[in-house]
Write a structure and sequence with these properties.
- Helix 6 runs parallel beside helix 7 and helix 12 runs parallel beside helix 16.
- The protein folds into four domains: about 30 residues; about 300 residues, TIM Barrel (Alpha-Beta Barrel), CATH 3.20.20.80; about 110 residues, Oligo-1,6-glucosidase, domain 2, CATH 3.90.400.10; about 90 residues, Immunoglobulin-like (Sandwich).
- The chain is built from 17 helices and 23 strands.
- It is of the alpha/beta class.
- Helices cover about 25% and strands about 15% of the residues.
Length: about 600
């Protein structure tokens, strides 16, 4: 080898070394992701409610710059993707779910330039950004609706219009008995057009007519607009409401055994004509085909169906005809309304119902809370926050965290005078608290300064919870052990292959105990999660059931902050036939199966 060749070889090796160092540093900073595995199978998805996350401007409302400024927080706590509740141009009758422009940003949140900055910042840190997609309806202030009222072509039939059934003393009578989810008739009279229009939510949210091919094309164009911008996927809102029967001159039947006497309450009727119509799946398929033209994008869909898993699972499609990547799994919300409903058996049922009914080849997901339901700590008990996060984050599938659940935020009491949610307002001062969603939407609690560090303005759009002085991000970062540190430990632990690809078994299920093991044949270390669902201190024997062969001992990896015992300090080895647990506690053990 001559001198020149040696020099070239040396330069080449230096180049290889520099590249290797860059790769190692990049991996250390941003994590390695196998490009063959969709991001949503590995990452935790975190729902941001933009009005309440962080106010950068400041004006008492959260905004895009505020969310952008918190990017490092997500990296610290181990979140890999954020899902933004609606930020589109809107009169805010339903806080962004009434959209006046599907391809622009509402000024209260910022500008399109602010959104582009957010997207670039998050992508630069290796984080994904998912948008809310609200196809069922628009705002009545959308240009489409204004032109449809005037019967301007081609918008005449962009919405669902009907002549009155009859007239009662010159007052037009709606064509049927259909009800709004937000209470009352689902039909509103347009004096200008001399017809009723249909709305499954507020009268400010007229339903789009998906039987019109032009409407379908409009929605495909909206999806393409955001995909071309680089967003990483969509959460599809209220999907089951997309179609209703074509002949609107039919009444829906009264729901049997509902216990509801209020004839204006949505639950009074059995909704056979207005939800889950077969045409919905055809439109969903078109969206899937478009999204699949782009690399590694997520489509998750919101469908509340309770225990009707047969209907719900249709939204997955199947291996040869895929639809959504997953419909949200609300079994732990709809089936667990309060502590009395929470047992080892009910948790086992919620987990196995989904896993056993899911179509072959599909991927599960776990949802503990969201912007429409009471917070975990208030619904099921503040002592269970860590244990339920253990379950959600370590079960097979995608974990979805609602903002603030990582620190154990609780519902905030909101007076009638301060109530903003239209769903609560429609029930009046006597019943608003039963239906308002404001309590779970209050500002994120960052520190113990004024308004919990959410804003430096003189007020907030909803009151801050009074517990913010002790329950906040800064206090939990400073503490030796906190909900936040537990959450961080769990998000790091779930990066192990056994939690992505491993199997699951249930070694001990009782009235008071739920447990599961994550294991894989190729690894000698299994992981055991144990939850005391009761409010009492227990000594748990995990060997009493021989359905899964556990070793004699396990090593504590993570424990709830309620546990102060010296015997279960992380790193301690504990006999699995006598595990002492306080009420609501969760423990994660590593198991050496070669013992």
């Amino acid at each position: 080898m001559n001198l020149k060749t040696c020099q070239l070889f040396t330069l080449f090796m230096l180049f290889v070394g520099v590249v290797a160092v860059i790769v190692v540093c990049w991996t250390a900073m941003y994590g390695y992701q196998d490009p063959s595995v969709p991001f949503w199978k590995e990452e935790v998805i975190y729902q941001v409610y933009p009005r309440s996350y962080y106010d950068f401007h400041p004006d008492g409302l959260g905004d895009l710059k505020g969310i952008t400024s918190k990017v490092d927080y997500f990296k610290e706590i181990g979140v890999g993707a954020i899902w933004l509740s609606p930020i589109y141009t809107s009169p805010m009758a339903d806080f962004g779910y009434d959209i006046a422009n599907f391809t622009d940003i509402d000024p209260i949140f910022g500008t399109m330039e602010d959104f582009d900055e957010l997207l670039d910042t998050y992508h630069g840190k290796g984080l994904k950004v998912i948008m809310d997609f609200v196809p069922n309806h628009s705002s009545d202030e959308h240009e489409w609706f204004k032109k449809s009222v005037k019967k301007e072509y081609p918008f005449t039939d962009y919405y669902i219009w009907s002549d009155p059934l009859s007239f009662n003393k010159s007052e037009p009578v709606p064509p049927n008995n259909w009800l709004s989810v937000f209470r009352g008739s689902a039909w509103t009279w347009s004096e200008e057009r001399k017809q009723f229009y249909f709305h499954q939510f507020l009268d400010k949210q007229p339903d789009l007519n998906f039987r019109n091919p032009d409407v379908q094309e409009e929605m495909l164009g909206i999806l393409k607009f955001w995909l071309d911008k680089g967003v990483d996927g969509f959460r599809v809102d209220a999907l089951k409401h997309l179609f209703e029967v074509e002949d609107v001159h039919q009444d829906e039947p009264v729901a049997k055994d509902s216990g509801i006497d209020d004839k204006m309450d949505y639950g009074y009727l059995n909704h056979t004509l207005t939800v889950n119509q077969p045409e919905t799946f055809g439109v969903l398929r078109k969206w899937r085909e478009l999204i699949d033209l782009y690399s590694d994008k997520l489509m998750m869909v919101e469908v509340y169906e309770g225990q009707d898993l047969g209907t719900l699972m249709k939204y997955y499609g199947n291996e040869t005809d895929p639809l959504a990547d997953f419909p949200f799994n609300f079994l732990m919300i709809e089936g667990l309304h309060n502590r009395t409903e929470l047992t080892g058996f009910s948790l086992k049922s919620a987990v196995t119902l989904w896993l056993d009914n899911m179509p072959s080849g599909k991927w599960p997901n776990w949802v503990l809370g969201n912007h429409d339901n009471h917070r975990v700590g208030s619904r099921l008990g503040s002592d269970l926050v860590d244990a339920l996060n253990m379950m959600s984050l370590l079960l097979p599938g995608t974990a979805i965290t609602y903002y603030g659940e990582e620190i154990g935020m609780e519902d905030t009491w909101i007076s009638w005078e301060d109530t903003k949610d239209p769903q609560g307002c429609r029930y009046g001062p006597e019943r608003y608290a039963e239906y308002s969603r404001d309590p779970e939407r209050t500002p994120m609690q960052w520190d113990n300064t004024s308004f919990a560090g959410f804003t430096t303005a003189s007020d907030t759009w909803l009151p801050v919870n009074e517990n913010y002085k002790t329950l906040n991000v800064k206090a939990q970062k400073d503490a030796t052990y906190s909900h936040l540190s537990v959450y961080q430990s769990l998000t790091q632990l779930r990066k192990l292959d056994v939690f992505t690809t491993g199997r699951i078994a249930y070694p001990s299920i009782t009235e008071d105990v739920f447990s599961f093991v994550r294991y894989a044949d190729e690894t000698a270390t299994y992981y055991l999660v144990v939850i005391n669902t009761s409010e009492e201190e227990l000594t748990v024997d995990l060997h009493h059931d021989a359905s899964f062969d556990l070793p004699k001992t396990g090593t504590v990896v993570v424990r709830s902050i309620t546990d102060t015992s010296e015997e279960t300090v992380p790193g301690s080895e504990v006999s699995l036939d006598s595990v002492k647990m306080v009420g609501g506690e969760g423990l994660v053990f590593s198991l050496n199966v070669e013992n």
